[in-house]
User: Which sequence fits this backbone?
């Protein structure tokens, strides 16, 4: 019995020592968990994928972000062919956010060239360190018979992006050839050391990875001299996406003018230069001279015949009937008539656009929708009483800044101005289609009313250029 008892005691002591060793090991494991979790994540997986027209015929730019430095590769092929049979390489640039953490992002850009006009392509992007999901897009249609379809809006945030779900669905059914985002992204991309920008770019991937996402900056992009905007987007030209033009639809800014087809010319520009003078008064004059030169080229008889429509897109409008005392509510709007408190005085844009026969001016900033009668110098110039938008003798203005953001709606003054034709505070966005040389269609979609079209017009012009005003 003593032998058995001693054996049991010995076995029990062994078990106690064994359990103590196990607890010690577990304790060490738990102690090391926080150390492991505190290490920066390895993020070589592409995210925030979006595409845009680079201003070169038969091309598309794919842009994405990683948080580790990797190669920049896009594998692609025509729809229905062998997946990823073609490959294009690009490069990445390092973007350091201006916040306190000085976070670093790697922005990758790859240009796909030699695309067949109007053809569908399947692609993914990344490197052997990680690949994106599979996406698809339609190459720019370079033919003269093409009637491009746009979704137009401004002021879309990552909080309360009410219109985004409807735009996602409409993207999936192939309703658009391009998105035109008229400034103010995320609210704001620089917030939380750029993480809000990351979240927003990931949100719009659901539309921008499939349809070219063309942009211009707004006032909410001004932090660190517009650095988040300038680094995250890839627009035509060499002005860091601040202002540029695109012919045919949204896809040209240079090269052989006979190479592209289409119906018109878009001019996209930075309106906030009038309001952030700390970044340099010279930007106002640089933009103005660029606009003047670009409009002169567009109005050469051979160019205006080939591209009759000229459409501008800028964030802050010249006119509005809102009640928030913004610049557009003032008779002496900076955007409209310029600034006299700079040396020399800064020119406005209304006269410039009028003299060069701009047909349509698209704006945002006000979190509402407003359609104006054809207007110049605060006076209405309708085509006729019955058909105001048939051969009008002044440009047409559309304000579409109600896509949805954390700042909610803006209000209107009780009585609209004489040049205000239609107003709505519903969340929503604008659709635009350039049908041919004489007809352009616009309609406003209300997301509050489940996608109902609440306003629409046909803009009909038998003449373009300054001759249309005579």
Assistant:
């Amino acid at each position: 019995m003593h032998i058995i008892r001693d054996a049991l005691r010995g076995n029990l002591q062994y078990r106690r020592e064994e359990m103590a060793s196990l607890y010690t090991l577990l304790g060490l494991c738990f102690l090391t968990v926080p150390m492991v979790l505190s290490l920066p994540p390895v993020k070589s997986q592409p995210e925030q994928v979006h595409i845009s027209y680079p201003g070169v015929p038969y091309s598309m730019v794919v842009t994405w972000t990683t948080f580790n430095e990797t190669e920049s590769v896009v594998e692609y092929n025509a729809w229905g062919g062998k997946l990823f049979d073609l490959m294009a390489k690009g490069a990445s640039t390092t973007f350091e956010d201006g916040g306190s953490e000085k976070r670093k992002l790697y922005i990758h850009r790859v240009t796909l060239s030699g695309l067949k006009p109007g053809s569908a392509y399947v692609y993914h992007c990344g490197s052997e360190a990680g690949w994106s999901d599979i996406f698809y897009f339609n190459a720019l249609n370079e033919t003269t018979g093409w009637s491009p379809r746009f979704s137009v809006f401004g002021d879309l945030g990552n909080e309360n992006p009410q219109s985004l779900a409807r735009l996602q669905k409409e993207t999936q059914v192939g309703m658009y050839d391009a998105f035109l985002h008229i400034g103010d992204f995320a609210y704001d991309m620089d917030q939380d050391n750029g993480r809000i920008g990351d979240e927003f770019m990931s949100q719009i991937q659901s539309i921008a990875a499939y349809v070219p996402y063309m942009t211009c900056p707004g006032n909410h992009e001004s932090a660190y001299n517009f650095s988040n905007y300038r680094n995250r987007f890839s627009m035509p030209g060499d002005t860091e996406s601040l202002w540029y033009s695109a012919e045919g639809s949204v896809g040209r800014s240079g090269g052989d003018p006979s190479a592209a087809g289409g119906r018109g010319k878009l001019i996209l520009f930075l309106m906030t230069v009038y309001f952030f003078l700390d970044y340099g008064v010279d930007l106002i004059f640089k933009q103005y001279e660029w606009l003047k030169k670009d409009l002169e080229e567009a109005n050469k008889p051979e160019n205006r015949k080939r591209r009759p429509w000229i459409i501008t897109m800028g964030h802050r409008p010249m006119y509005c009937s809102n009640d928030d005392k913004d610049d557009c509510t003032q008779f002496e709007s900076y955007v409209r008539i310029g600034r006299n408190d700079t040396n020399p005085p800064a020119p406005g844009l209304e006269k410039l656009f009028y003299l060069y026969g701009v047909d349509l001016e698209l704006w945002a900033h006000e979190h509402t929708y407003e359609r104006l009668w054809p207007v110049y110098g605060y006076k209405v110039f309708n085509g006729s009483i019955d058909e105001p938008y048939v051969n009008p003798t002044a440009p047409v203005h559309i304000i579409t800044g109600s896509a949805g953001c954390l700042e909610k709606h803006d209000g209107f003054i009780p009585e609209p101005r004489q040049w205000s034709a239609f107003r709505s505070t519903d969340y929503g966005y604008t659709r635009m289609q350039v049908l041919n040389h004489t007809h352009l269609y616009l309609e406003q979609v209300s997301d509050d009313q489940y996608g109902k079209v609440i306003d629409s017009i046909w803009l009909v012009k038998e003449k373009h250029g300054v001759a249309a005003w005579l």
User: Anything to note?
Assistant: The first strand starts at residue 47 and ends at 52. The two ends are 122 Å apart (CA to CA).
